[in-house]
């Protein structure tokens, strides 16, 4: 009996362990994601992140939970905000190098939630997943290998790391895939294989390779069905070990990569690739080493690069101070507190959300207690909360859309001030994704669309537009915000000229000094 228990115990430990080399790659991936995110956000710095833009601090605070944490809530000065961007960038470099790694990871997490709370109108599932991965990463030794910390420790790094922290990281990815797959299980569109071809017909969120792939809807059906079943069986990432585990992980990695070159859904593809790398076991690294040796790449490429990086790491370790505070807490007390805390976090962020999710699906009847509500509210303050994970689920939308902001000027002209053109309800581009400066603008416009007439975000946007045109010497009077829809069908995936089109008036506004009036437009909306 004890032998069977030992086997079960070893199996569970292996299921939730992560190779230290894999953790190092994950750490570097997180740092690179931060660098990419900061640079991308910097391109719309004034528009999205300063008091002169469309989301000033008062709006950001109004759209986040009371007590939400953000470094940016302590200043409204654009120069200080820019300095915080630079600090965030530098911390990402520190994380990549693996210097004071846990401290760097804590700061990375705090800056991630700070940026998200600084502008909650442009967020997506990718931001939620990234915050959660950063949070769980605080509790694992990311600097165990391939880091300045490992040089300064002067100890042989552990090969495998198994803890409640590694379990939480792995569970996070499986939880996301499983919940998303569960949503799609009951979807007629996914079960009939129609979902993926119709998604690829959405011009406002597809780009690059999506256009050529539309010519082969049957191939899209097959690829979409493969992704659907990968989600459903994603729990095998925990059950399988060795080569089967990393083959499954690489299949999911490939699916995430395909997102990055076909659909503009934020950084979800990149964050997903970084997260699923956590499932690469020791066998993967052994196989990579064997292949490199067989191709004669080990001595010619791998060893020189490794030696160069090793020498660089050694120089950095010698140059940088090594401060290892000793709080004098016995290891048994420290480890016990860690286990208790992690158990609470896992229950709060996996078990309770799963129960609430099942309750929403009418699978159980669960009444949320005041304690559970309090726990959820406190986690929301630090941006740690499970998403419903409804990425293209349960039923993806099948309507393309673009926006027309009809505006009248004091000179009697009519303009489309969203697309910066003479007034027209016509499609502004064949490839509708070009109407957005970047992917976050699409999420921002979703917020504007959902706000409607009574929402405050459109008011800030209108004030910004009026001010911007006034600086160009054009005085606007009234603005009507329209969203134009196109129905995507199997027959019109690549033929937008033959789609049914209709419009929706979102809201009416007036620039400062003018009254809100209905515009007498030169053409009727579709």
Give helix and strand order, one letter per element, not per position: HEHHHHHHHEHHHHHHHHHHHHEEEHHEE
Radius of gyration equals 26 Å
Largest sheet: 5 strands, antiparallel
Number of strands: 7
User: Strand-residue fraction?
Assistant: 5-15%
User: Which secondary-structure class do the elements indicate?
Assistant: alpha+beta
The end-to-end span amounts to 74 Å
Question: What's the overall average pLDDT, rounded?
Answer: 93
Based on Cα principal axes, name the global outline.
globular
- Strand arrangement across the biggest beta sheet: 5-4-3-6-7
Helix content: 55-70%
Number of helical runs?
22
- Count of spatially separate domains: 2
Low-confidence parts:
none
Entry keywords:
two-stranded antiparallel ribbon; 526 residues; 2 domains; alpha+beta
Description:
This protein is an alpha+beta fold and 526 residues long. It has 2 domains: 2-152 and 165-319, no CATH class; 399-510, no CATH class. It is 56% helix and 8% strand. It is built from 22 helices and 7 strands. Helix 2 (20-42) runs antiparallel to helix 5.
Short note summarizing the structure:
With 526 residues, this protein is an alpha+beta fold. It is built from 22 helices and 7 strands. The protein has 2 domains: 306 residues, no CATH class; 112 residues, no CATH class.
């Amino acid at each position: 009996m004890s032998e069977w228990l030992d086997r079960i115990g070893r199996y569970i430990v292996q299921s939730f362990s992560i190779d230290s080399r894999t953790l190092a790659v994950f750490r570097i991936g997180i740092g690179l994601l931060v660098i990419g995110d900061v640079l991308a956000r910097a391109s719309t710095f004034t528009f999205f992140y300063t008091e002169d833009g469309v989301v000033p601090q008062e709006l950001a605070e109004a759209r986040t939970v009371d007590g939400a944490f953000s470094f940016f809530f302590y200043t409204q000065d654009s120069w200080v905000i820019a300095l915080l961007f630079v600090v965030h960038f530098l911390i990402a470099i520190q994380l990549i190098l693996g210097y004071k790694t846990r401290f760097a990871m804590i700061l990375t997490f705090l800056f991630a939630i700070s940026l998200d709370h600084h502008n909650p109108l442009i967020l997506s599932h990718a931001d939620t997943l990234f915050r959660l991965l950063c949070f769980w990463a605080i509790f694992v030794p990311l600097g165990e290998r391939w880091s300045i910390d490992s040089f300064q420790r002067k100890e042989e790094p552990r090969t495998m790391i198994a803890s409640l922290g590694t379990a939480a990281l792995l569970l996070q990815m499986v939880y996301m895939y499983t919940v998303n797959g569960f949503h799609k299980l009951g979807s007629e569109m996914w079960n009939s294989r129609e979902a993926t071809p119709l998604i690829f017909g959405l011009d406002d969120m597809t780009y690059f390779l999506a256009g050529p792939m539309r010519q082969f809807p049957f191939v899209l059906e097959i690829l979409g069905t493969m992704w659907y079943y990968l989600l459903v069986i994603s729990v095998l990432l925990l059950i399988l070990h060795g080569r089967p585990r990393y083959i499954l992980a690489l299949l999911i990695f490939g699916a995430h990569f395909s997102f990055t070159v076909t659909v503009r859904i934020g950084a979800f593809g990149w964050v997903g690739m970084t997260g699923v790398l956590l499932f690469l076991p020791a066998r993967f690294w052994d196989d990579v080493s064997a292949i490199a040796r067989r191709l004669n790449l080990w001595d010619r490429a791998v060893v020189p690069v490794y030696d160069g990086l090793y020498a660089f790491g050694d120089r950095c370790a010698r140059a940088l101070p090594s401060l290892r505070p000793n709080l004098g807490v016995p290891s048994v007390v420290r480890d016990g507190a860690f286990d208790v805390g992690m158990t609470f976090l896992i229950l709060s962020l996996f078990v309770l959300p799963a129960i609430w999710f099942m309750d929403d699906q009418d699978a159980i009847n669960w009444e949320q207690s005041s304690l559970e509500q309090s726990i959820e509210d406190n986690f929301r303050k630090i941006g740690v909360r499970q998403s419903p994970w409804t990425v293209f689920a349960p039923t993806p939308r099948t309507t393309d859309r673009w926006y027309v902001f009809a505006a009248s000027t004091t000179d009697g002209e009519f303009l489309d001030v969203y697309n910066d053109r003479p007034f027209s309800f016509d499609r502004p581009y064949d490839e509708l994704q070009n109407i957005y400066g970047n992917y976050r603008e699409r999420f921002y416009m979703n917020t504007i669309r959902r706000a409607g007439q009574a929402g405050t975000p459109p008011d800030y946007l209108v004030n910004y537009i009026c001010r911007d045109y006034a600086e160009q010497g054009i005085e606007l009077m009234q603005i009507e915000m329209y969203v134009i829809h196109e129905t995507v069908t199997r027959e019109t995936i690549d033929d937008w000229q033959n789609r049914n089109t209709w419009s929706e008036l979102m809201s009416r506004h007036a620039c400062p000094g003018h009254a809100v009036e209905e515009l007498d437009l030169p053409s009727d909306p579709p």
